[in-house]
Amino acid sequence: MKASSKIDLYVTCGPGLEKVLEQELIELGFPNVKPGFRGAFVPYQSIRDIYTINYRSRIASRVLLPLLRFRCRNARELYNLAQHIQWDRYLKLDKTFAIDANVTHPELRNSLYAAQVVKDAICDQFVTATEKRPPVDPKNPQIQLNLFIHEELAVISFDTSGTPLHKRGYRLEGGEAPLQETLAAGLYRMAGYKGDEVLCDPCCGSGTLLIEAALIASKTPPGYLRRDWGFMNLPDFATEEWLQVKNQADQERVPLQKGFFFGCDKSKDAVRICKTNLKAAGFAAQVEVSLADFREFTPPKAPNFVMVNPPHGIRLEDVGVLKPLYRALGDFLKRKTAKPAKGFVFTANNELAKEVGLAPKKRHVISSGGVEARLLEFDLYEGPKVQKTDL
Ligand SMILES: C[S@@+](CC[C@H](N)C(=O)[O-])C[C@H]1O[C@@H](n2cnc3c(N)ncnc32)[C@H](O)[C@@H]1O
Q1: Which of 266, 287, 295, 371 to mutate to test the pocket of ligand 1 (most atoms within 8 A of CB)?
Q2: pLDDT tens-digit series, residues 257-294
Q3: How far is the CA of 209 from the centre of ligand 1 (A)?
Q4: Ligand 1 within 6 A of 186 CB?
Q5: Residue 326, domain extent
Q6: How far apart are CA 234 and CA 223, in angstroms?
Q7: pLDDT tier at 309 (50, 70, 90 boundaries)?
């Protein structure tokens, strides 16, 4: 599809990240971004926009290019209108494809069924022209399409990201409850992280918060390690132009200084995984990770920025066990930071959050994995008042 100012790209994000995504897109040079449900609309001017957002947005999950918008009253209309797209422009017989569907419609039974109708329309169009059908791979497709139907508005889009953008390429292993990379980047934007602070994550797990901070501080594009993108299958994809966009972003990278990033975890496995991921991200030498319980850990340099996602428990009985840990986290913030400092605790458990024992300056509400979570912001000055508050 040729770029035209009448088309909006739809840039998706995780729940609760819409505002920070908008801010980021404006900074990336898209001032006319409009808010959307779990995402934002960006007026589409040129294929460079697609390259730029995919390569440089830390918060976006996917960049969708609409191919067709239509009113859809039933499955027959969906089938017929899906055939209006000239599919051999986007799909090839030697490349697998899949359709990700998000459908709420009274006549269409469910998203899977609606996706099947579109898949049939596509395959029938190919069979009529070539007697062959393009292969489908729902798990790991080379080309990803997207179907969105809400009430009677249907949109079929080409997913220009392909593999979702949180898959940066550095997470070789996950560990216990790792944060999604795009969510971690969103938390840093909410926190106003600049990249020149001395940062510590005292429950670092697989290292997502440390690595996303290091990426921001070194101005490394989040797509730096990726090689494959959905947009490479677009008919107007041009390697030279893409490399211009990529090289321009890569030239902004600055070397990461040692002595600014510290983490610890009490789990041997977590520390091993974190170090593996740091190495994959290229930050093994600059980010120092220790095997330690944070209650006994003193970072080699006192941090003035703490970002932490402590365990928050799943079962009710976990809460009692975890309360002392949250109290100790409050002590860590008070005792181990270089004042003035900022502390951020991301947790899905409100009851536990109160145990930190400091009055939060702000609470940013974010949904994470279907659970409502909060990023609590603490301002730490010399001798802060210790008080419990209703969060
Ligand atoms: C929710 S996970 C953090 C996940 C991490 N943000 C990531 O993206 O991988 C919580 C981590 O806290 C660690 N932890 C729990 N208690 C700790 C303690 N007292 N000291 C240090 N680490 C602790 C656990 O081992 C676990 O790796």
Answers
A1: 266
A2: 999 999 999 999 999 999 999 999 999 999 999 999 99
A3: 11
A4: no
A5: 181-221+239-251+259-380
A6: 18
A7: very high
